[in-house]
Every structure is written in C-alpha cells, then in structure tokens.
Amino acid sequence: MGLGKLEKRVGFIGAGQMAEALARGFISKGVVKASDMIATDPVKARRDVFESFSVKPVISNAEVVKEADIIFLAVKPQFVAPVLKEVRQHLTEKHTIVSIAAGKTLASLKEAAGEDTKLVRVMPNTPCLVGETASAMCLGGKASDEDAEEVRTLFSSVGRIVQVDEKLLSAVTGLSGSGPAYVFLMIEALADGGVRAGLPRDISMALAAQTVLGSAKMVLETGKHPGQLKDMVTSPGGTTIAGYHELEKSGVRSGIINAVLAATNRADEISRL
Ligand SMILES: NC(=O)C1=CN([C@@H]2O[C@H](COP(=O)(O)OP(=O)(O)OC[C@H]3O[C@@H](n4cnc5c(N)ncnc54)[C@H](O)[C@@H]3O)[C@@H](O)[C@H]2O)C=CC1
Ligand SMILES: O=C(O)[C@@H]1CCC=N1
C-alpha cells in the first residue's frame, strides 16, 4: 500500500453499512486512497462490495491490524469486545483504534484492547457518504492530540466533527447518530403529503428533500434561530401557519424530542450490557 493524503493506512473491521459510507466518503474526498485501505468481514457479499470500489478485502481481522495504522471497529456493539480480544496480540504503539459502535465505552474498549492502546470513540452518521456527516468524538487510553487531529482530518473530509466528553456521546447517538432516520421519515411524509395534494411522486420527493436540505443550510449559514427562520415563512393568515398549526396539534415537537431521548436511553442501555 502507498501513502494517501493522511499518510496513514486505514483498516475496517466490519465492512457493513457504516464502514462502506466512511470508506466511500474518504475516497471521494481524496483524504485516503482506496489502495491505502483494507477491510474485513465474514460475509463475502460485503467483501465484494469493498472490492468493487478497490479497497482490499480480507477474511482475517488480524490481517487488517497488521496492515493498517488507523483501525475502524465497525461491527455491531456486541462484537466489539470479542473482536478486540481476538486481535489484541497484534496491536502495537503504531495503532489507533477508532470505535464507532453505539454505547461501547472507552473503559470497555480499554479492558478488551489493553492499557497501552490509543483509543478514539466516534459517533458518526450515514451522511458521511455524501460528505455531510455530523459526528462527535472523545479520546481514551493512550490517544494523543495528534491522534485526535488525524481522526478530525478524516471526519472533516466527510462533514463535521466535534469533540465532547464521553458522557455526552449517548446523547449524540440519540440525536445525530440516529437522526438521519428521523429526517428520512420526515422527507417521506412530506413527499406523501405532496402526493396526497396531487403532485407526481418523483417531483414531490425532489421538492421534499431539497426543502430539508435548503432549510438545514439556512440554519447553518445564517446563524439565525430556527424559530426566526420559521417566522420568515409564515405570512399572517397565510398557508404556512395553517399547516404549522396542524403540526403543533399533532404533538410532532414532543414526538421528536422523545425520539432523541429514547435513542439516547437505548445507547446508555447498550453501554451497560
Ligand atoms: N448505521 C448507522 O447509521 C450507524 C452505525 N453506527 C455503529 O456502527 C457499527 C456498525 O453498524 P452498521 O454498519 O450499521 O452495521 P452492519 O451490520 O451493516 O455492519 C457490521 C458488519 O460487521 C460484520 N461482522 C460481524 N461480525 C464480525 C467479526 N467478528 N469481524 C469482522 N466483521 C464482523 C458483519 O458481517 C457486518 O457486515 C455499529 O456498532 C453501530 O452502532 C454508528 C453510527 C451510525
Ligand atoms: O441504530 C443504531 O444502533 C446505530 C447507532 C446510531 C445509528 N445507528
């Protein structure tokens, strides 16, 4: 393997949905070359997917550890500790372990990987595939500011990343980790509304998705409070307030708050398993 922009080799243990979104994102943004990445998965179909975009697929987790410097643990939470114990003997001071598993604490990672390991916990989300992730990270074990900088470089190439105290990572999981699913539900419902009102499905879906994209951009780029931006859409006695009133009556606001809380609580639960 040669050296890409990050000048580190990146490995994925678990080549599922998130690993694919990250690997494709890193390649498309040019931060790591496909030839500097390696991925392992017991499922052949998943290895084939990685091979299809030129990332070397292997069967052995130990091989990923031997070849890579930054190792993403992208397996389901219950497999994190067993996988770390399996590869522990191959870990050296060159390695940085980046766990993206929901709920797996730095303490549990350290217990499985050993005292001397450089550990980073990241909670990303799937929009890294299109360069728009909202991610958060925290450091553990022997991870240094330099490790943090490398992880920041990777995730900044596919969106935004903030550093938080580990105690906030469950809330991040409930909000932005799981959040794309809530937004997809909203886009689907908006499009259904358009269809119900007579729009063709394809036009309705495009308008719904672009409306969410544009609205999110306005929040990020104007710095204005969403309530203020809402007021700009809402003409007195007009159409928007009629629709908005229905949303308030349906309890959608507390529905969304409760969704974030339920997912946060579930992340806490997973951390206690
Ligand atoms: N899907 C999402 O939106 C997000 C997922 N996460 C976290 O990312 C992790 C992966 O999630 P997904 O990609 O959605 O799951 P996934 O099920 O698509 O991928 C997990 C992959 O790990 C493989 N695997 C199972 N046992 C293995 C082993 N012993 N060694 C190597 N590979 C093994 C599976 O075959 C599978 O392809 C989870 O821990 C999840 O909490 C974090 C943020 C967002
Ligand atoms: O649903 C899950 O458990 C994972 C973690 C955050 C998003 N997906």
Automatic annotation (TrEMBL):
Q: Which key words tag this protein in UniProt?
A: NADP, Oxidoreductase
Question: SUPFAM superfamilies in the record, alphabetically?
Answer: 6-phosphogluconate dehydrogenase C-terminal domain-like, NAD(P)-binding Rossmann-fold domains
Superkingdom of this protein's organism = Eukaryota
Domain Pyrroline-5-carboxylate reductase catalytic N-terminal span(s) in chain numbering? 9-103
Which positions fall inside the Pyrroline-5-carboxylate reductase dimerisation domain?
A: 166-269
A Pfam family cross-referenced in the UniProt record is: P5CR_dimer
Family note: Belongs to the pyrroline-5-carboxylate reductase family.
What protein name is recorded for this chain? Answer: G10125 protein
Organism of origin is Coccomyxa viridis
Gene from which the chain derives: g10125
